[in-house]
Amino acid sequence: DPTLREVAEPTGRFIGTAINDGLLSNSTYRNIAATEFDSVTAENVMKWDTVEPQRGQFNWSGADRLVQFAQQNDQLVYGHTLVWHSQMPGWLQNGSFSNSEFRTIMTDHVTTQVSRYRGQVQRWDVVNEAFNEDGTFRQSKFYQQLGSSYIADAFRAARAADPNAKLFINDYNTETANAKSDGLYRLVRDLKAQGVPIDGVGFQNHLIVGQVNGSAIQQNLKRFADLGLEVVITELDIRMRTPADSTKLQQQARDYRAVADACLAVSACSGITVWGISDRDSWVPDVFPGEGAACPWDDNYRPKPAYEALRAAF
Ligand code: XIL
Predict the structure, then answer these.
(1) Over the chain, what is the mean pLDDT?
(2) Structurally, what CATH architecture does the domain formed by 1-37+224-314 represent?
(3) Domain 50-67+76-204: which topology?
(4) Where would I find the GH10 domain in this sequence (predicted)?
């Protein structure tokens, strides 16, 4: 049977996965990651707390491993993420800085990381999760110190560091039209109007089995695409109450198919990344107690109906 990347490549879309750095030494994991996907996202090792654990001290070991893996396997790299309220190092989260010093810390971080991988990372999540559920700006440290201007400044720093990388803003619960996605829509429309260098919007798609509305997702992708932006499904997983059973797994397959169909129906939707390979390695059970089985491969790295549905979509 053809792999996911073999069926996706002729459509011009990429199919990616989040890579857990600690699992690259597992040959089963590594083989699936290499053969099934043509794009990789670092699940954690490109986040600020990993990359700059102490101010001015950089740790690129995991990020370099990811980029090397991608080059070995002829894969794109989706950079995740530069400016985010979560997984910030303690010195940054708890430190006391003037607004101008804080702005410089942020833009220096963006410049340093994007420059290091210039030409090797094709897309960056420059800003992640900037919104509250009601569509107002999240009161992150970035927002508290700099107001919403931090967003434009982060994008400008990223563009200057790698003019060829495509720059994204990424969020969750923005997959369909709602207060949060409306807030995101207004922001990216205004950024475009102001000439801020933004190229795309990432939609995480951490979804729930039986609650996926494919046509609503398609319509929402389309309205962002109509602003002249690329759109990407960046972190797809579809969770259920565990344990799984065949009814739930069949519904999950239909839900995966609906998300893939939504992307494929929108020409500006350039790819789909799933947030992990096997259910055993997924972040879901740690964060949503009693839920899981959200990935395309099961606990034993066997492909699930969701895997077959994804492949059939291309
Ligand atoms: C998650 C990782 O999967 C976990 O390993 C980590 O402990 C926490 O972060 N939105 C994002 C991702 O943008 O970076 C998150 O990844 C999942 C939610």
Answers:
(1) 98
(2) Alpha-Beta Barrel (3.20)
(3) TIM Barrel (3.20.20)
(4) 1-313
